[in-house]
Each structure stands twice: as structure tokens, then as C-alpha cells.
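Subject: two folds for Thursday's group meeting

Dear M.,

Sorry for the delay on this. The cluster queue was jammed most of the week, so I only got both jobs back this morning. I'm pasting them in the order they finished. Each block is the input sequence followed by the predicted C-alpha cells. Could you check whether the formatting survives your parser before we put anything on slides? The first protein is the one we discussed after the seminar.
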Amino acid sequence: MPGAQVITPSAHTPDTPDPSDAVTVDPALVKRAVKAAALGNAMEWFDFGVYSYIAVTLGKVFFPSGNPTAQLLSTFGAFAAAFLVRPLGGLVFGPLGDRVGRQKVLAVTMIMMAAGTFAIGLIPSYASIGVAAPLLLLVARLVQGFSTGGEYAGASTFIAEYAPDKRRGFLGSWLEFGTLAGYIAGAGLVTVMTALLSSDDLLSWGWRIPFLIAGPMGAIGLYLRLRLEETPAFAAETEKAKSERPKVPLREMITGQWRTLLLCVGLVLVFNVTDYMLLSYMPSYLTSELKYDETHGLLVVLGVMALMMVVQPFAGALSDRVGRRPVIAAGCVGFLLLSVPALLLIRQGSLFAIALGMGALGLLLVCFTSAMPAALPALFPTRVRYGSLSVGFNVSVSLFGGTTPLVVTALIGATGNVMMPAYYMMAAAVIGGVAVWFMTESAGRPLPGSPPQH
């Protein structure tokens, strides 16, 4: 099939080393690598979760307006702006990760993410400094977006290159477990503050607390990442490059991998549109479109994420046994068939119906969150893995994933059709299904450019 490159034992090319050079990795190092990568992802999505769940309050602080929809659009506009610079971050950090090492670049992205999030908690309100307030918010979001451009591709590459071939799905699933943990921490904190603080207190100073927490969280994550060693795959590639090959130019990372990059964009599109729809947009949808009680809406989403966390490692292990393609394909078919029924359940408004609809979408999303961290790095050979994955992942997230809340809010406002979230997820599922069709199975096989690992 066209698309991903896969090692076979008889294929000896520069990107497919001799299988007799099999590598055994220390299990303790693998655990440390997974923990450090997952914690960094958790910190990143703690911020995104907080930003999404407290969007209504942020709209009042930074974008005063008599129109609640305009405030929400402005807030999600700043949210989406961070995704517009993600490809630039990927273009910088990705090739750098292939040149100087995954561990060093992941330490830098951690510092930048923590600094950008912490800075948001210090910005004065619009009432204090006028238009400078939303401008400073935008700058902080751009710093976050730039650093995030090198985060996911680097973290998934790091885990994939440490993981034994037969356990890559299970170990990779812990990266998105960190994502969910970060979301739950952010959502839980916002829920507690919403319940305990008055509207005036939340508006005047309470909203700052989640962002200020990013400082110590970033310090812990940085400490863990600085203690890591480079991956065996990158270390071997570095030794080989010293004597056999020149540095890989950026152009080769893109034009030399363009078919696989298109495949990557399609897979990331369905992964992130559904992810941001459920975890970022739905809390605001429940509040702004369905007039649902804000605290109860947050608790429902919190429960869905907790359910996803429980299922996540088991689904990752399943992808090791049956393959990445069947697991991802099941998610695409599920979203195509069940998005409308699930949203209709949610729109009924009762707690049980909302929980049932959201829970169904959450379990379908696990098909992506569990398998993608192992499937995406396996698309590219070691020498360009970080760079090419950064480009493909961030272009797709910037154009389709991070813009999901903004686009869907605008579509509902323009058409008046409150079923737009379901139609949007269905369209993404079709594109994802096409990508899966052309995707080559990678479960249980060595990464392209790396020897077998156990």
C-alpha cells in the first residue's frame, strides 16, 4: 500500500538496518522515558484544558462586549492563534530534534510552554490596561503554540524509539494518558473554583490560579526530562551519520516524504478534530448553546475523561495485538455512524442523556488516542522522524484541529444549525477512513530506520 514505510527482515536499505542488530532496552529507562514524556504532555494540555473550560470568564476579562457569542469567538480566536504558529515551531524544533537530539529539544519546549502559561496568569485585565491586555494574551498564546510545535512529535518519537516493538502501542498510549490527566487536572480545578468562588471573585482574580500553577509544574517536568538519556535509535543514527551520510536538509524532510506526510495529515485530522471537539469545545457548547449549568457540564466532561483514562492503556495494548489499522478504523466508522445520535442525546438536556452521548464519543476517541502515538512515528524513518512528523502533525492540527472550536462556533452562528458539531466530526471521520485505507500496518514491527527492539 502507498503511505507508511515499513521494515521487512529481507529489505536492507539505508533506512532498514540488519535485523541481526536487534537492540534490548533497559525496562527502567523505558519507564522513565514514558513518565517524562507523558508529564510534559500533561502540562501542555493542562493549560489547553483550563483555557477551554474557563473560556467564558476569559472572554469577559480580555474581550469586553455586550455580545456573549462575540466574546466566546474572540477567546477561541486567541486559542486558535496559537495553532497558526505551531507549524513554525515544528519547522524549527523538528529538524533540530533530528540534528541535536530529542531529549535536548524536549527540555527547551518544556521551558517555553511553562513560561507562556505562567505569563497568562500575570496579564492585567482589559479594564486595567485596555487593548494591551488581549495583545499580551495573544503573545503568550503564540509562545505556547511555537513551543507546542515541537512537543507532541518529539514526545511520541521519544517513547516510540524507546519502546520494544511488541509493546509500542501500550507504552505510547501513556502519552495520551498524560493528555487526559492534564485535562482532568485543569477541568477539575476550574470546576472547584466555579463551585467555590463567586462570579466576581472568579472574574477578578480566581481565573489566574490555574495558569500560575504552570510554573512549578514546568520545573518538575524539566527536571525529569533533563535526567533522560537519548533514545537508542537516535544514538545509533548519530554514529552512522558521522561516517556515512551528511545532515538531512529540511527540504528532504518534506519533499522526500510528501506521500507519507499527506497520510500523516489525514490521520492527525480525524484524531484532533474529534479530540478538540469533545474535550475543548463541548463544555462551551453545553453552556452557550444548550444553556446547561456550567458546573454540571464540566463534571460530565470530567467523568468522560476519567472513563477514557481507564480504557486508554487497554486500547493501546489491543493495538499491539490486532494492529493499529483496525483500532483506528473502528474509531472512524464509529464517528461516522454515531456522531448524530450522540449529539441528539446530548441535546435532550438530561444528565443521563448528556453523559451517555458524551461517553460514547469519548470511547470512540480512545481508538485514536491509544493507537496514534505509536502509529504516527512509525510513518517515518529515524533520520527524519522528528522533523517530518512535526511538519505533518502541526500543519494538520493548525488547519483543522485547533481551529475546531472557532469554526464550529462560527458555523452555528452563521447557519443556526446546532447539529454542526456532529457533521464536522463525520466529515473528519471520512477523511480519516481514507488515510487508514492507505496506511501500512506497523504493529509489532521495527520502526523504519531502526533495528528490531525488545
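Second protein, same layout:
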Amino acid sequence: MKFSDIAEQQWDELKPYLDTCLLPVTGMTGLEQPFEATLALEQLRDVMDLIEIPFKGRIVTYPAMHYMNEDSAGALVSKTCRSLKETGFRFVIVISAKNQVGLECPDADLVICPDGDGEAPTAANVSKAVQALWNRGDS
């Protein structure tokens, strides 16, 4: 569910069920040509579909963090994860279609992105990782 689909008067009722926030990270630098920005957003959408579609009803997708400075990306994403948890989310999943090697994000409960070779995660692996996160949280 997208953040914009939740009306203010619905939130208190839905909050107990929507305990997981999906934080998309595009990871652009601002040096992208228009077609490169389009491709980055399309790739991010495709990776987000691996979570948004099968886990609809428990996850709220927040606006993407599009532009990052490599030197401070980890700190910014981690701070955002902390803030989202302070608003009441039990879990925060950071997701990106770009290899985020070096993205230190200790406040994210799960980071989903391509591996070091640029290989995108499979739907099965994403599903297992999300379910494992929730199972850990339930114990």
C-alpha cells in the first residue's frame, strides 16, 4: 500500500496491520541523463514489485530517496529508518535496484538490492527474507 493511499482517519485502524515500511532508494547522483533516470526508476519499480505485490496488506511504501551523495548515503538512509520506526513502524525494509555496496544502514531491518555482480534478487529470495524478518520479530 502506498503512503498516499492511507487517509488520516484510516491510519489508527490500519496501523496495527501495517507494521512494515518499505523505503525505496534509487541511488541517483544527479549526473544521470534523462533516459538513465527513467531506467533507474523503472528498475526500482520492478524490484519493489517483488515486495509490494505479494505482501500487500502489511507493508506501506514510502516516497523514494532518489538522490544520494555516496559519502553520506548510509547515514541519511539509516537516520530515515530510525525516524520511520519512531513513527510506529516495527520494521523498515530498504530496497534498491542499484547495487548499494558500501551502504551501511544499521537501522534498516532488511536491505534488498542486487548483489556485488549486479544480479537482481529473485522473488523467492525476497519472499524468504521478508518472512524470515517477520518470524524473527515475532519471537
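Two things I noticed about the second structure. DSSP finds four helices and five strands in the chain. Strands lie at 20-28, 59-61, 65-67, 91-95, 110-112.

Cheers,
T.
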